[in-house]
Amino acid sequence: MPIAAPRSEARMKLLTVRFAFAIAVELWTGLVLASCGTVLRAQTIAIKVVNGHNGRPIADKCMYVWVGNRSDPGSKPLLETQTDANGVISLRLTHEDVTTNGGGQRLACGLTGLINPVAKLGDTISIHSGYALCQPGTRDYTWLARANFSTDEVLRHGFVSENTCGKASASPKPGEIVLFVRPLTWWERLKQ
Fold it and tell me: Residue 10: which residues within 8 A CB-CB, separation 6 or more?
């Protein structure tokens, strides 16, 4: 009889280890599947607005963002939002129809808009910053221009605009737009 006791203890330890391993595998599988489901439902694009002269972020400033289909430019509303302290707008894209994400909030510029807006996925993202774009061949009144980007290209590779205003630079990262701008000159502000 004394020989049977160690066998049953060893067997119990083996069963306990197997059971713990099975639970760990199930939890890990559940986490992986849950995170994949989130990726399929919504994706976030970071829009960084940077001063092309000095490389500093354009922080706490109001911007307009439009997400829609290029074939129907009037399809979606223009979202008024703002950059955060790091000059970033977090734009969450989803496949579902979205009207607003909880109503308007007071923005840094004093207007009402959405912080970290949610929008239905479209093939184009357009940004109107209210600053002059640091891009070659820009015409007069560039602060009225909208910068347009392919949503698919941004999600896959990222996008960094050219910077003709200074030496600041960045490398593209998937899911990120870096837009180099500059403050308006006194003459441009006068013409507004």
Answer: none
**Starting from the edge strand earliest in sequence, which strands make up the sheet with 147-150, in order?**
79-82, 62-68, 124-128, 147-150
pTM over 0.70: yes
Structure tokens at 8: 């049953």
Q: Which of 180, 185, 191, 177 is nearest to 45 (CA)?
A: 177
pLDDT band at 39 (very low <50, low <70, confident <90, very high): very low
Pairing of strands 62-68, 124-128: antiparallel
Chain segment 3-22, per-residue pLDDT in tens: 555 566 766 665 565 655 55
* CA triple 40-44-48, angle to 5 deg: 160
Structural domains of the chain sorted by starting position, each given as residue range(s) with its CATH number in brackets: 42-191 (2.60.40)
